[in-house]
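Long-time lurker, first post. I've been practising inverse folding by hand and with some scripts of my own, and I keep getting stuck on stretches where the structure tokens seem ambiguous. Below is the full token string for one chain I'm working on. Before anyone asks, I'm not after the true native sequence, just a reasonable design that respects the backbone. If someone could post their per-position residues I'd love to compare against what I wrote down in my notebook.
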């Protein structure tokens, strides 16, 4: 187990290193306006002095080395336009809790609705519940999210009397953003759990249980569901972490002061340090989610070998 974990962590660190290098280099290829508040009003000498002060005139390997040194200290530079001369980490510290709360609620709703949806669809395969569930999943997967996000906001605010914009102190204003962020995961969990349960239904141990006279409900939920849920586990950490750091479109739509809306704003303002830090945060969360998913699968399913060939993804 320790050997397997060491290999998986090592691969994850290498992946993160490559991502950080690529993002860093790409951001350094962006226009230098993103590193100054009043670029249009600055003289050439002031621009060169500012670039030198920030180390942007050093060779790329030297800049990258300084970046890693600062990153290990938790220093990602300062914001140049969003909040002038305020450390990036301070800005993120103010925004992240809002996204974490919204994301956690949306994941909770997704699990409460998505898991039973998949189980019911598999239990009544080919019948009305399965067809209705399939219709919902196809709709969510086929229609661009921006379309039904707008409809939810438009009709939710008029019919239900929910505020149009987000207000952290008003619980009603949380309903539509949480619902919007939940729909994709509800369809995702329902689709994959149904698939895994249908696969389990066709296995020999289910036929044997039926031959022994076990009830359909007992077989479905005591055996089929438990075995089918194991492969779902690998998706839960990544979907949870990606959701809690914020939905870019939903947060912008409801003016939520979280990570998603922040990314849109700093891109518009060409605040390169902020963009770089947020992109790296998203990448780190994605890699950690995949790592946790693999580890959880090996813990929950003893049939999975932790050897070099079978353990990794």
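-- Answer (accepted) --
I ran through it position by position. Result:
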């Amino acid at each position: 187990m320790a050997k397997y974990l060491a290999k998986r962590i090592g691969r994850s660190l290498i992946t993160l290193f490559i991502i950080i290098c690529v993002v860093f280099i790409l951001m350094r290829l962006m226009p230098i306006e993103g590193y100054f508040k009043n670029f249009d009003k600055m003289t050439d000498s002031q621009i060169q002095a500012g670039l030198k002060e920030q180390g942007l005139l050093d060779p790329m390997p030297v800049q990258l080395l300084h970046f890693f040194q600062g990153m290990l200290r938790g220093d990602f530079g300062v914001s140049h336009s969003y909040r002038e001369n305020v450390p990036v980490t301070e800005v993120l510290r103010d925004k992240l809790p809002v996204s974490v709360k919204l994301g956690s609620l949306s994941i909770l709703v997704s699990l409460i609705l998505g898991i039973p949806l998949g189980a019911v669809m598999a239990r009544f395969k080919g019948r009305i519940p399965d067809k209705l569930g399939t219709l919902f999943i196809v709709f969510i997967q086929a229609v661009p999210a921006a379309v039904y996000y707008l409809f939810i906001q438009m009709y939710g605010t008029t019919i239900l009397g929910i505020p149009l914009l987000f207000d952290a102190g008003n619980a009603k204003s949380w309903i539509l953003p949480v619902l919007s962020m939940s729909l994709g995961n509800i369809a995702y969990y329902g689709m994959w759990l149904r698939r895994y349960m249908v696969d389990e239904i066709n296995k020999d141990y289910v036929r044997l249980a039926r031959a022994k006279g076990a009830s359909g409900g007992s077989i479905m939920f005591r055996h089929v569901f438990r075995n089918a849920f194991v492969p779902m586990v690998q998706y839960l950490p990544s979907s949870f972490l990606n959701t809690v750091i914020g939905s870019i479109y939903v947060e912008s739509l409801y003016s939520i002061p979280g990570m998603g809306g922040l990314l849109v704003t700093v891109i518009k303002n060409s605040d390169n340090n902020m963009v770089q830090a947020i992109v790296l945060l998203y990448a780190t969360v994605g890699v950690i989610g995949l790592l946790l998913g693999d580890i959880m699968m090996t813990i929950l399913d003893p049939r999975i070998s932790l050897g070099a060939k079978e353990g990794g993804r």
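A couple of notes from the structure itself: Residues 88-123 form the longest helix (36 residues). Confidence is low (pLDDT under 50) at residues 308-313. Happy to go over any region you disagree with.
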